[in-house]
Amino acid sequence: MIKTYFNQRAAVWDETVAEKDATKLELMAERLEIRPGAMVLDVGTGTGVFIPFLLSKISSNGKIIALDIAEEMLRKAQAKGFDGEVAYLNADVANIPLTDEAFDSVVCYASFPHFQDKLGALIEVNRVTKSGGYLFICHTSSRVNINEIHNGIPEVANDLIPDEAEMQIMLAEAGFIDVSIEDGRENYLCRARKPGSLRELDGLWLKLKADVQGFGGMGKSTNRDEINSGGSRLADISQGNSS
Questions:
Q1: What is the spatial distance between Cα 149 and Cα 106, in angstroms, rounded to a whole number?
Q2: Predicted confidence band at 233 (pLDDT cuts at 50, 70, 90)?
Q3: CA dihedral for 17, 84, 125, 96, sign (positive or negative)
Q4: Residue 96 has what DSSP assignment?
Q5: Residues 183 and 201 in one domain
Q6: Closest to 69 measured CA to CA, from 137, 117, 15, 14
Q7: Whole-angstrom Cα distance, residue 143 to residue 148?
Q8: d(C-alpha 26, C-alpha 44), whole Å
Q9: Alpha helix stretches (DSSP H) within 19-65
Q10: Helix (H, G, I), strand (E, B), or coil: what is residue 21?
Q11: Which of 56, 154, 189, 224 has the fewest CB atoms found within 10 Å of its own CB?
Q12: Which domain holds residue 209?
């Protein structure tokens, strides 16, 4: 179980994970469109390695909720005593116990591969993101390298970053638009935005319908069902039925 895996490694995580490189983290944070004063959800915060760089983005009047499924990781993060408005939440990203549209930005740094239900997690992240708000999925290494590292660790061997086509489909199904993916040797950054208007929702619905047609005859019945389900959900939203 992923929670057990990270709880067992919390005590030594900062000493064994190379991704704590401050320069790489600073450069990654600079690329995120997070405004001063923003309310940010840091999903899978771990020991809080990215928190100082997020604090530098939001300035003194912003706030961060640091969420992680592993309570021992959160204890390590909280013990660091970050200078800023940071609250800690022990929860599963697939069931976030927070109100709708609470956050200007949601950041998943070095955590997305470990989400056991990726589509369910993205749908839940969309729910707590404000209309027009952003989701950032990021790593300080390439998709291929991250996947190779995980493949070599039995406990997380199946915790992988999907390819770009699958990411595009999942993010659209979860209700995001304007998806862009940059995959370099020392960085991976996926940006997506929650629609901010009914016109943008309609645009997403048209894209989902086009994707359904594009998969015709290719044996993609599962994705077709998921996309149709997402389209129905978006239609409900556009008609004011958000339940």
A1: 25
A2: very low
A3: positive
A4: -
A5: no
A6: 117
A7: 9
A8: 18
A9: 22-30, 51-58
A10: coil
A11: 154
A12: 197-243
For 183-234, the three-class secondary structure string (H helix, E strand, C coil) is EECCEEEEEEECCCCHHHHHHHHHHHHHHHHHCCCCCCHHHHHHHHHHHHHH
- At residue 30, the 3 state secondary structure works out as helix
Q: For residue 208, what pLDDT is reported? A: 64
Q: Please tell me whether residue 156 adopts helix, strand or coil conformation.
A: helix
Residue 130 has a CB neighbour count (10 Å cut-off) of: 17
| Token pair recorded at residue 196 | 């901010």
- What does the pLDDT read at residue 217? 39
Query: At 61, is the secondary structure helix, strand, or coil?
Result: coil
Q: Quick one: angle between helices 164-174 and 198-214, nearest 10?
A: 130
Alpha carbon 230 to its chain centroid, in Å, reads 18
The whole-angstrom separation of Cα 66 and Cα 51 is 8
| pTM for this predicted structure | 0.82
Which CATH number does the domain housing residue 85 bear? 3.40.50.150
Residue 50, pLDDT > 60, answer yes
Cα pseudo-dihedral 108, 178, 167, 103, rounded to 10: 30
- The domain tally of the chain equals 2
Q: In whole angstroms, give the CA distance from residue 161 to residue 136.
A: 14
| 226 CB-near residues (< 8 Å, 6+ apart) | 119, 169, 173
Q: Do residues 135 and 21 both lie within one domain?
A: yes
* Site of tokens 């530098």: 56
